[in-house]
Specification:
The two termini are about 60 Å apart. With about 400 residues, this protein is mainly alpha-helical. The protein has 13 helices and no strands. It holds the Pfam family Ion_trans_2.
């Protein structure tokens, strides 16, 4: 790099000397010193230019050399065999699992401490209440005299505990407790912006981590969903084209068409795939079919939801509203449903990708029409004026210089 810079510096110096000689008001006298200066400047400039060109050629050959075999293999796997999609998914999974581990480390001990304190307070208040009821009620004096107080107290304590469990009294208003699977689910709902509210951080450090985690996770999820949406768009293109082609062939069988029409249809089908896109209504219908399929599976899984409630849950989730009014209590079932939701979000991304392509083509068609109209106006105005001006100048030149 320093050698090329030195040659370039010498070349600029030689050009400067030659230029100063050529731009002088008086031509240099034909002396031995001036001739030597002129000759040295030309020779030095030519040598520097030759060296700079050789260095540039070496750099071009270095860039044009084939990469090593391992790099070519990685490049082929990355672009040809879709390794980039797998890498994005693996990065998202690692980010989710690592985030769940951090959330569990921060929120787990706090949850256990608060839960133990709440349990101790409930047991203490229960014992105080049972003892006050026993000794302040004259109907229980015969049992106290019979030394059966402990047995009655244990019986009442167990009865109160069962009553509290039936009331579903918890130490917090969270619907789930912190464990690793629930932490994974929480990390996923944060990154996808669904946020059911079934579990949330309670410590200041956990809340700060949630904000930082969302700032990095939401763009990552959007990138993965966009990539999967494009992949599904390309993947649906050929099957839908074949289905449409099959319908055309069936119509040709049951309708009378001439040989020219059949040949024209065949030629159009062969050249249609390159510009063919999946219709928007077909993609939306695929999302509705996916919601129906997932709702059917969930309604027959054993959960106390109707088919309408399951459809409502999946629609609210795919629209990333996440009201949290319907959330399964079983974390394993919720994880499976979250997997269904991720696939559904990829389908939604596919619909958005198709809509974007349709809007882009509409815009390009409008720009093309506008350019055609603008070109016709330009032909009628500007180009005509330029042509008249050129004809006028040629006429003036011919008149002045016959």
């Amino acid at each position: 790099m320093s050698f090329a810079a030195d040659n370039a510096r010498r070349l600029r110096a030689s050009i400067h000397v030659i230029g100063s000689i050529l731009e002088s008001e008086k031509p240099p006298e034909a002396t031995v010193a001036s001739e030597r200066l002129w000759k040295n400047a030309l020779v030095e400039g030519a040598r520097s230019a030759r060296a700079l060109a050789a260095a540039s050629q070496r750099q071009v050959r270095t860039l044009q050399e084939e990469p090593p075999l391992c790099f070519r293999f990685v490049e082929q796997m990355y672009h040809k065999y879709g390794l980039k999609h797998v890498i994005l998914i693996l990065i998202l999974l690692f980010y989710t699992f690592f985030g769940a581990f951090l959330f569990l480390i921060i929120e787990g001990p706090t949850q256990n401490r608060l839960k133990d304190t709440w349990t101790q307070n409930i047991a203490k208040n229960r014992s105080v209440f049972i003892g006050s009821e026993l000794f302040n009620n004259s109907n229980y004096l015969v049992y106290i005299k019979g030394k059966t107080t402990k047995r009655i107290e244990a019986h009442l304590s167990e009865s109160f505990r069962q009553y509290e469990s039936q009331l579903e009294i918890r130490w917090s208003d969270q619907k789930m407790e912190w464990n690793y699977w629930n932490a994974i689910l929480f990390a996923g709902t944060v990154c996808t912006t669904i946020g059911y509210g079934h579990i949330y951080p309670m410590t200041p450090l956990g809340r700060m981590l949630t904000m930082v985690y969302a700032l990095c996770g939401i763009p990552l999820v959007l990138l993965v969903l966009q990539d999967l949406g494009k992949l599904l768009t390309v993947g649906m293109k050929y099957p839908w084209y074949q289905f449409k082609r099959l319908i055309r062939r069936l119509l040709k069988i049951f309708t009378k068409q001439s040989m020219e029409e059949m040949a024209a249809i065949e030629y159009r089908e062969r050249n249609e795939l390159s510009v063919f896109d999946v219709p928007l209504y077909a993609a939306v219908g695929l999302i509705l079919v996916w919601i129906w399929l997932c709702s059917t599976i969930i309604s027959y899984w054993g959960i106390n939801w109707t088919f309408l409630e399951a459809c409502y849950f999946f629609f609210i989730s795919l629209s990333t509203i996440g009201l949290g009014d319907l959330v399964p209590n079983n974390p394993n079932l919720l994880l499976m449903m979250f997997g269904f939701i991720l696939i559904g979000l990829s389908l939604v991304s596919m619909v958005l990708n198709l809509l974007q392509n349709k809007m882009r083509k509409t815009y390009e068609a409008g720009q093309h029409k506008e350019s055609i109209a603008h070109g016709s106006i330009l032909d009628a105005t500007t180009l005509g004026i330029l042509q008249v001006t050129l004809n006028f100048r040629s006429h003036i030149n011919y008149s002045v210089y016959p």
